[in-house]
Amino acid sequence: MTTCRAPSARTLRALDYLNVFLADVRDGVGPYLAIYLLATQHWDPASIGIAMSAMGIATVVAQTPCGALIDALTQKRLLIAIAAALVGISCAAITLFPTFAFIMTAQALNGIAAAIFPPAVAAITLGIVGPKQFAARMGRNEAFNHAGNVGAAALAGLAGYFLGREWIFYLVAAIAGASIVSIFFIAEEDIDHDVARAAMPNHTGRRGTASGLKALLAHREILIFAISVTLFHFANAAMLPLAGQLLSQDKTTGASLYMSACIIAAQLVMIPVAALAGTQADTWGRKPIFLIGFGVLPIRGCLYTLSDDPFFIIAVQLLDGIGAGIFGVLWVTVVADLTKGTGRYNLTLGTVATAQSIGAALSNAVAGYVVNAWGYNAGFLMLAGIAACALTIFYWAMPETREPEVEPEGRLSPAVYPMP
User: Fold this and answer.
1) What does the CA dihedral 233, 235, 237, 238 come to, rounded to 10 degrees?
2) What DSSP letter does each residue of 348-381 carry, written as one string?
3) Which of 131-135, 215-219, 353-357 is predicted with the least confidence, judged by mean pLDDT?
4) 137 partner at 20 to 30 Å CA-CA among 198, 217, 246, 334?
């Protein structure tokens, strides 16, 4: 199917609402699980690290197959609805069966669902607006996503403080239901499923055919990008959960509110940053903006070691708003640049997301053991060092991927292109 008309206003509004609601669903209960396990169930940091890693490990296993599935299926809306239902049920059930085995299982199910959300939403967005408007629309998606995180974090903090930490899990289940409703307000006829998998004409003018995974992995720029984002997520994933544990030490009340304040502070910064990154990606280029996102992460890790004062930690968390705001918009845009014409956008997106998930899973597990052995400052400094490595590799090895402009003579300026 090829869309010949502009998408309906209802579809675009539904896409906004979907990003608002999925903001709190795609990560499950996130760092609140670490607080719940530490303060309510009295787990040690190493066990918490394993439980937090279970979701990431499941995502690693599922991410690439899910990307291939999204390329192959036209029922992308139904796939998102099923994944959201899975998250809602598993999060609510954690409060009823808080055993190590059950929480590991629930986290694994959440990890499978998390493997579906980013590529499926990106594919639907690409299929609705097309490649020319993709970066700007992803900026809007991420802005609404971060706005949803602000609202969800505020509700979670209030629910945890006044009703009990278990109500945070019930809140996620309710928001999952709202996301299921919103996805079906996106009109199926507004989605071009060929465009959604990047099987559109490439720079030679030929319509792309499906390239295999082996050919995609032989693409040097994709490999460099995958390595860079793996290190970025290794450095980033454990920082907020560790900050949450630091806030929970010797505090029987208020930890959920402090964690919500950390999340809200970052999300408020992410909203304008994501919108700006989306609108400026075609003007400034992808790489200069991405370097800002990579650069703030090692600074953030070092700053966490200076004080455990809650207000200082909340202030440091503002830097996460810059890094995550940029990353959320540009990583899917760069992958779209690199796979244009291949027909395997979602497969590649899933493969790169697998690399991210490997980094995130290792981050929580390794950081948990480092903190257990040497303390929180050692954990933060270890993560900051890995962030510096990610910045260096991306700066020296990753080229610009923005679509080149045609010169007056009709020749194309040098740029990075995918395989023919």
Assistant:
1) 160
2) HHHHHHHHHHHHHHHHHHHHHHHHHHH-HHHHHH
3) 215-219
4) 217
Please, where are the H alpha helices in 209-317? 213-217, 220-236, 239-248, 255-284, 286-303, 310-316
One DSSP character per residue, 228-257 reads HHHHHHHHHTTHHHHHHHHHHTT-SSSHHH
The string of DSSP codes covering 4-19 is: -SPPPHHHHHHHHHHH
pTM: 0.76
pLDDT for 11-68, tens place per residue? 999 999 999 999 878 776 766 787 777 777 777 777 787 887 788 788 888 888 998 8
HSE-CB at 299 with a 13 A cutoff on CA atoms is 13
The tokens of 238 are what? 């454990």
- 356 burial type by CB count under 10 A (0-12 exposed, 13-18 middle, 19+ buried): buried
CA–CA dist 359, 376 (Å, integer): 19
pLDDT of residue 308: 79
Average pLDDT, integer, range 257-262? 75
Q: In angstroms, how far is CA 222 from the centroid of its own chain?
A: 18
Minimal CA–CA distance to 317: which of 359, 356, 261, 366? 261
Summarize pLDDT for 311-369 with one digit per residue, the tens: 888 889 899 989 989 998 999 999 988 888 788 888 888 888 888 878 887 888 888 88
Query: In 3D, which of 28, 78, 93 has the Cα closest to residue 180?
Result: 78
Q: Which two tokens stand for residue 369?
A: 């053991």
Could you tell me the domains of the chain?
A: 9-186+211-397 (1.20.1250.20)
**Is 418 within 8 Å of 225 (Cβ atoms)?**
no
